[in-house]
Amino acid sequence: MKNNLLNNLQGVHILITRPAEQSKTLESILSNHGAKVSLFPTIKITANTNLEDYEDPSIKSLSNSDVIIFASANAVRFVAPIIVTKKLHLKSCIFVAIGDATEKKMKEFGLKSCIRPKSNYNSENLLALPSFKDVENKKIIIVRGNSGRELLAQTLKSRGAHIQYLEAYKREIPKDVCFNIKKYSNPKLDLITITSVEILNNLVQMADKKSLIEMKRIVLVAGNKRIGEECKNQGFEQKHIIAKNPSDEDMLEAMLERYK
């Protein structure tokens, strides 16, 4: 970013709602641009226990796959160490990342043979890549959390691919945690980041009644148009900031554009 943009967020109070381990970079970036940053994780990430069992069918299937799709950076964090340790298909398998953050995490583990959408990091744009036009009889593993959109698997199956999920981690709503907006009112909140529909749903569920009413008057920073539409559908009143993608860089760019 240009130097004259470094303080564009001076005094803006921003709430980050990502899982705690995924909030640090964005927190640092926003703080460097002058923002006051608060954290309220709405998702807890834990590894699935089957990852410890190399004889588990879902783990063994990695060794004879044609394509491995990582649906998130967390998917890479939990499964890439197994691929590297067991030296599974590092040369012959095609690795696919759903987006930029996922690809960066893959490179940390040396998984460099990677394709991903150029922009708009979602299943629709992944499916539009030339590599996925002809997948007849290809063995494709989708590494993800314990739930998610089914569009990717359903479409690839319709194109003749053999699909298997490897659920590498669990996404859970934090227990016994309530969002009370009073705790974040000094100064008052200006923006709340929403980087997935699941985060939006969890935040709504975790808020007390009064906080939810007040929260719906705050501008949200949505990670893409689909997330922005869901914010609108759930009654959030403001004209929200819509990022191109939920990556740290694109979220920052969208906020700077609003406050330039």
What does this structure look like?
- The chain has 260 residues and is α/β, with parallel strands linked by helices.
- It folds into two domains: 125 residues, 3-Layer(aba) Sandwich (Rossmann fold), CATH 3.40.50; 127 residues, 3-Layer(aba) Sandwich (Rossmann fold), CATH 3.40.50.10090.
- It is built from ten helices and eleven strands.
- The strands form two sheets. A six-stranded mixed beta sheet has the order 3-8-7-4-5-6. Strands 2-1-9-10-11 form a five-stranded parallel beta sheet.
- Helix 3 links the parallel strand 4 and strand 5.
- Helix 3 packs parallel to helix 4.
- The chain is elongated.
- The model has no long low-confidence stretch (mean pLDDT 90).
**Principal-axes shape call:** elongated
Class of secondary structure makeup: alpha/beta
Main sheet properties = 6 strands, mixed
Number of separate domains? 2
Give the end-to-end Cα distance, rounded to a whole number of Å. Answer: 12 Å
Helical proportion, percent range? 25-40%
Describe the structure in brief.
The protein is α/β, with parallel strands linked by helices and 260 residues long. The chain has helices at residues 24-32, 57-60, 73-86, 100-108, 123-127, 151-158, 197-206, 209-215, 225-233, 248-258, and strands spanning 13-16, 36-39, 44-47, 67-70, 94-97, 114-115, 139-145, 162-172, 191-194, 219-222, 241-242.
Topology of helices and strands:
Layout: E1 13-16, H1 24-32, E2 36-39, E3 44-47, H2 57-60, E4 67-70, H3 73-86, E5 94-97, H4 100-108, E6 114-115, H5 123-127, E7 139-145, H6 151-158, E8 162-172, E9 191-194, H7 197-206, H8 209-215, E10 219-222, H9 225-233, E11 241-242, H10 248-258
Parallel strand pairs: 1-2, 1-9, 4-5, 4-7, 5-6, 7-8, 9-10, 10-11
Antiparallel strand pairs: 3-8
Helix pairs in contact: 3-4
